């Protein structure tokens, strides 16, 4: 029997919000820890082992975007979910560019937060599994470590993949030669019911093509099956 309780770091300075989050996480069987400013949050992220970080943006001492940027620069791969009243498109983009994995604007329903938490933990656990086709994907002169998100391209360039790039490639690799539908990709890469647009998947596939195809505009390996999904051909 696995008694492991996922450890969740909550970095939130609004005390009443933080207490509500902590109480509900505990009721769901998680092991949350609370810190209330950006500097303490960064120290906790870098020095402790957590399964997930819930990170507010408007924090004293250091804002959440900077906390996330520094953590990613230090090599921390723990999933980070931004929680913030700044829910505009520019802020969402800034959060993702800083290295965040998801973004939940305030005010939010606790049920939605818990769904996001569950999905992110499930997705991160799947990303760390070797899978039926192994850990390293080899195709077209590329070699991609699907566990550590590092690759050597056909041109001998080294690539560090984002989480979503790695998850999409892992899903395609596990079903190589088969068409992976848009719905399958959304479940594997985003992992919850509030899905992004089709264009988000297209943009992600295009980024992989730019990294791993000799002619990105005429891809040979990562191909689109129009109206259905995507396929990885290794030959």
Strand content: 15-25%
How many distinct domains? 2
Quick one: biggest sheet? Answer: 5 strands, parallel
Radius of gyration over alpha carbons? Answer: 18 Å
CATH architectural arrangement of the largest domain: 3-Layer(aba) Sandwich
The helical percent reads: 40-55%
What letter string, H or E per element, gives the SSE order?
Answer: EHEHEHEHEHEEEEHEHHEE
Secondary structure class reads alpha/beta
Tell me the CATH topology of the largest domain.
Answer: Rossmann fold
What's the N-to-C terminus distance?
Answer: 42 Å
Give start-end ranges of low-pLDDT stretches: none
What is the CATH H-level superfamily of the largest domain? Response regulator
Query: What shape does the CA trace take?
Result: elongated
Mean pLDDT: 85
| Number of helical elements | 8
CATH class of the largest domain: Alpha Beta
Spatial arrangement of strands, main beta sheet: 2-1-3-4-5
